[in-house]
Specification:
The complex is a heterodimer of chains A (about 240) and B (about 800). Chain A has about 240 residues and is α/β, with parallel strands linked by helices. Chain A is built from six helices and ten strands. The longest helix of chain A is centred in the C-terminal third of the chain and has 18 residues, at about 180-195. Chain B is α+β, with helices and mostly antiparallel strands and about 800 residues long. Classes of the chains: A alpha/beta (about 240), B alpha+beta (about 800). The interface of A and B includes residues 88, 99, 104 and 159 of A.
Chain lengths: ~240, ~800
């Protein structure tokens, strides 16, 4: 599996992706014929109401689930046919996840949560530097229960970032945060793109976040209804919800 | 330390109460394994060394009297490696410090340490001097129990003569590791010992110059493996000299008891740990399944970060491994200490030159290995269940369980009678079938251990009561050196404090039926005995038939004989005229293979009109007359020995019940740990799993005790079902134990009075309530708000 950076093609390419779940005798089609390219270094926001298939796309892109139909390529690598071990390697080296509810390991400190990433990564960033980048140097030895929601989300971002992945996948990163803290987290994400060129994919039901994206993908009932390119993205500080 | 290792350390600490409970159960398993296995090797090694050092014989042959040339003939039989003759008698010992006459086996020893078989090992004092007259060496336990030191004097009633002896030393011999007096079940060093005298002197006293009445010897290794053909040849040679079928080592009393103990240790070193480790593995499986379930999101996140399934699987297995290693180390340590303690107890029964527990690295490593394997096995299923989920699925909270109706709800009328709390508890129990089953199994195992312990106590008490209060009701049993007439009963009846004296005739013999043969003896009783009363299996008195035999059930089984069938009797003493007698009824006995007959009938069979060689005595029980009785008995020239029923009961109670108390205490402790550990885990897992549901009830106004009550209902249902299942399980295990420990001459009674069952259920409930105490403590400390904030 070749996960090396190659700049002559989209970072990620979804082609005719569908996902159907069987629930007893019932078959639920959650995603239908999704085709999308994600370019290196862009911020892509996917918006849609609950049940529109956002999380399913994120899970498929993140190598945590497999499509029922279609193909997903990361660089030149086909993820659809990758083995479990190859998907594990893909998640380990190419992807950084930021979760809505942070998903920190409660029995590990902030620093240790970040180390959980760096220990298995091939070229990780320095843990303390990464924590410093998200402004948590002082709180590095605290357990998740001793941190605020915003701080926990920043640990979650640091954990995703510290692996030095190409693509950050953010699932409702501001969903559990208050307005001000949410904006701080968005600023952090934008900085990561601007300072170190990470590609960032955000899924959210909050359409107010859309103006900071380079492109906005609208989803409804498992289908892409519209892709809008944003010629002049707004800085997070100007976003209001 | 890696991040996962840190997580493991903290998770272990977080789950310390439940893990300790499981570790305690597992520790019991390893403890049993290490203790029993160590004792197995300790006893086996001590036995081998001791036998080698003493040149332990392979066969023992008793005869009336034979010239020593016969010993050479025996030694020349193919298969016999060596043989030696000695003189052996039972005698009465009169100690200046003891008012009671004691009994001893007198054995001749060759001068200058020339004994070839069953040599003695001196413990105190010295061997015989060149002259050796009037010098005696006593077996060490007898000397110690009666506070006799080298240099002290005592008298022996030998061949109608009172002889004064000086103790020159005390010694041990491998043929008396477990020294039993005639008809005893346990060693009683206070009242029975061995007196070694120099051969030349014994020959003189017993008129046995150049002769022997006991031949012992070694067999070649091939013959020792199958001694019967050689022993038959020896019997043929000794026949003209009043010889009986020699006893092979495997049937020698001391060896038999020691070997049976060693064999029992070997067997239970497998069974006992297997029980504990199975319970521990099942409970661990419940805990790990719950732990992995509660860490679904963490597992999903770690997978999303790129951790492989194998790495996470190993991480959760390590959980079990920690418990396994912890229990292994604790079990090895406690097992070693218990083995040391048990060695001291064994020394009260088995007389070894040295018996102490050794350090066995292989046993400890095996102990560690089996606890680790058991723990990993118990964890594997739980760990695997969560890990097989796809990461996306693992990160979603588990869907709430399907609510559906349980089968009990179809019984509408019954269901309506349950309160809300009971309905909740019953639904929860039935929906979590695996956990409920493990709980019931755990309780059943705990209860069965209690049943085994309680039934054992009851059985021992029943045995003592049946043998020494129901069957044998004489205060004293006097045996005579040779047969006498009715006048001896009258003479003994005149002794101080004697209310009633009854004659007996013991005829040693072999019994034959359908090609089967058993060594034994027939006891002749008066037609209406009041001292020895044969009884049937239900305890009813059996009358003595004027002709024919009453055979005890075990012997009847060994001979395959039934009522009405004829048994061939070949007496091994006296004129040895064989005769046939019908079995009139089957009697019950737990001790010895007794056969009873009318004393006149038996006398006629051996060619006498009335022969008496034992007298049973009922005394008035007063202390003063007892002292006078003992003083007069010591003067009786015809006396071979005397045993007191009270002393026998006391020594049995001391030996059996007192040592049983230790093992019963251990059994109750083990059962408590199983109950406590099992119930605690089931309840705490249930509490964790239903935290949100219970937190909601708190918000609705339920108090902490009421919440605890909901969990207690579940525990009590599990406990009651399990304990009830444990009653028959324990009973079956006890029956298996009786079967495995049964010997030809002793068997354990099968009795179960109601207290056994009630005590088991009561203790089971107590242990469960104790476990509930910890659960309630946890409920009081719970952060209920956090419980409500569980993410979906």
């Amino acid at each position: 599996m070749n996960l090396q950076v190659q700049h002559d093609s989209p970072l990620l390419s979804l082609s005719g992706v569908g996902r159907t779940y069987a629930m007893g005798e019932l078959r639920v089609e959650v995603l239908k014929n999704i085709s999308l390219d994600v370019q290196q270094g862009e911020i892509l926001v996917m918006v849609g109401p609950s049940g529109s298939g956002k999380s399913t796309i994120l899970n498929l892109i993140g190598g945590m689930d497999r499509p029922s139909t279609g193909s997903i390529r990361y660089r030149r690598t086909e993820l659809t046919t990758a083995s479990d071990a190859e998907l594990t390697r893909y998640r380990r080296e190419a992807i950084g996840f930021v979760f809505q509810f942070y998903n920190l390991v409660p029995t590990l400190t902030a620093r240790e949560n970040v180390m959980a990433s760096t220990e298995i990564a091939r070229q990780p960033l320095d843990v303390d530097e990464t924590l410093g980048r998200v402004g948590l140097t002082e709180r590095a030895d605290h357990f998740p229960a001793q941190l605020s929601g915003g701080e926990q989300q920043r640990v979650s971002i640091a954990r995703a970032l510290a692996k030095n992945p190409e693509l950050l996948l953010c699932d409702e990163p501001t969903g559990a945060l208050d307005f001000e803290t949410g904006k701080q987290v968005l600023r952090l994400l934008v900085d990561l793109r601007e300072q170190i060129g990470k590609t960032i994919l955000i899924i959210t039901h909050n359409t107010a976040i859309a103006p900071l994206a380079d492109r906005v993908v609208h989803l409804r009932s498992g289908e892409i209804t519209e892709i809008v390119a944003n010629k002049s993205p707004l800085p997070p500080e100007e976003i209001v919800w | 330390m890696s991040v996962l290792a840190r997580k493991l350390r903290r998770d272990v600490w977080h789950a310390k109460v439940t893990m300790l409970a499981i570790a305690a159960i597992m520790t019991c398993g390893v403890l049993c394994f290490v203790m029993m296995r160590s004792l197995y090797f300790d006893l086996s090694t001590a036995q081998d060394d001791y036998y080698r050092e003493c040149r332990m014989a392979d066969f023992w042959a008793d005869l009336k009297k034979a010239p020593l040339q016969v010993v050479e003939r025996i030694a020349s039989i193919p298969g016999v490696a060596s043989a030696s003759g000695r003189i052996s008698f039972l005698a009465t010992v009169d100690l200046p410090t003891s008012v009671k006459p004691l009994r001893a086996q007198v054995l001749s020893l060759e001068a200058h340490d020339g004994t070839r078989h069953n040599r003695i090992l001196l413990r105190r004092g010295r061997s015989f001097s060149a002259d050796g007259r009037a010098e005696a060496i006593l077996n060490d336990a007898f000397a110690t129990a009666n506070q006799i030191e080298p240099g002290d004097s005592f008298s022996l009633l030998l061949n109608n003569r009172r002889q004064e002896f000086r103790v020159v030393g005390t010694a041990l011999s491998s043929e008396f590791v477990y020294l039993l007096g005639p008809g005893s079940l346990v060693p009683d060093p206070q009242h029975f010992g061995v007196v070694y005298l120099q051969r030349g002197y014994v020959e003189e006293i017993f008129d046995m110059q150049g002769a022997a009445n006991s031949i012992v010897g070694r067999l070649t290794p091939q013959a020792a493996a199958d001694p019967d053909p050689v022993l038959k040849q020896i019997e043929r040679v000794l026949g003209p000299f009043g010889g009986q079928r020699p006893i092979a080592r495997k049937n020698q009393m001391s060896h038999l008891f020691l070997d049976s103990e060693i064999e029992g240790l070997g067997t239970f070193a497998t069974i006992a740990p297997a029980i504990f480790l199975t319970v521990a593995a099942l409970v661990l499986n419940i805990l790990l399944s719950r732990l992995a379930e509660s860490q679904r999101t963490t597992i999903g996140t770690l997978k999303a970060l790129g951790y492989s399934r194998l790495a996470l699987f190993r991480h959760y297995l390590a959980f079990g491994l920690v418990i396994g290693l912890l229990s292994g180390v604790a079990g090895c340590l406690l097992g070693y200490l218990s083995a040391r303690g048990m060695c001291e107890i064994y020394q009260q029964f088995f007389e070894f030159p040295s018996l102490h527990t050794h350090f066995y690295p292989r046993i400890y490593l095996t102990g560690l290995l089996i606890s680790s394997v058991c723990a990993v096995t118990g964890s594997a299923n739980g760990a695997w269940r969560a890990l097989r989920l796809a990461p996306a699925e693992a990160m979603r909270a588990k869907a709430p369980p399907v609510g559906g109706r349980i089968f009990l709800e179809r019984l509408t009328r019954l269901w309506r009678t349950f309160s809300f709390g009971w309905k909740m508890a019953l639904r929860n129990l039935i929906r979590n079938r695996a956990r409920t089953s493990v709980g019931i199994f755990t309780a059943a195992v705990g209860a069965s251990l209690l049943v085994i312990g309680f039934v054992s106590i009851e059985a021992t008490q029943f045995l003592i009561d049946f043998q020494y209060r129901q069957i044998n009701r004489a205060d004293f049993d006097l045996t005579l050196q040779r047969e006498a007439g009715w006048e001896v009963v009258q003479e003994i009846g005149q002794l101080p404090g004697v209310e009633h004296a009854e004659p007996q005739l013991h005829v040693s013999c072999t019994l034959h039926h359908r090609g089967r043969e058993r060594r034994g003896g027939i006891t002749g009783l008066p037609s209406r005995p009041s001292m020895t009363i044969p009884r049937d299996a239900t305890g009813n008195r059996l009358s003595i038939p004027p002709a024919g035999l009453l055979v005890t059930s075990k012997l009847a089984e060994l001979l395959d004989v039934e009522e009405g069938e004829l048994v061939e009797i070949r007496p091994t003493t006296g004129r040895r005229l064989p005769f046939s007698a019908p079995v009139v009824a089957i009697a019950d006995s737990y001790l010895g293979n007794n056969v009873y007959a009318d004393i006149r009938y038996l006398s006629r069979q051996i060619g006498e009109e009335l022969a008496i060689n034992a007298v049973q005595v009922k005394s008035d029980g007063s202390s003063a007359s007892q002292q006078a009785f003992y003083r007069r008995v010591k003067q009786l020239p015809a006396l071979e020995g005397i045993s007191s029923r009270q002393d026998t009961i006391k020594s049995l109670q001391q030996a059996l019940l007192d040592s049983q108390q230790t093992s019963i205490a251990m059994l109750i402790g083990f059962a408590g740990i199983i109950f406590f550990g099992g119930m605690l885990n089931v309840s705490l897992v249930s509490l964790t799993e239903r935290l949100r549901e219970l937190a909601t009830l708190r918000v609705l106004g339920y108090g902490k005790w009421r919440i605890g009550g909901l969990l207690l209902r579940e525990s009590m249902v599990i406990n009651t079902l399990g304990a009830c299942a444990g009653l028959p399980l324990g009973w079956l295990l006890y029956l298996a134990m009786v079967e495995s420990y049964e010997m030809d001459f002793v068997r354990l009674p099968i009795v179960a009075p109601p207290w056994v069952w009630w005590s088991t259920l009561l203790l089971a409930a107590t242990f469960t309530i104790a476990a509930q105490g910890v659960v309630q403590w946890r409920i009081h400390r719970l952060d209920w708000l956090a419980g409500l904030q569980v993410k979906e």
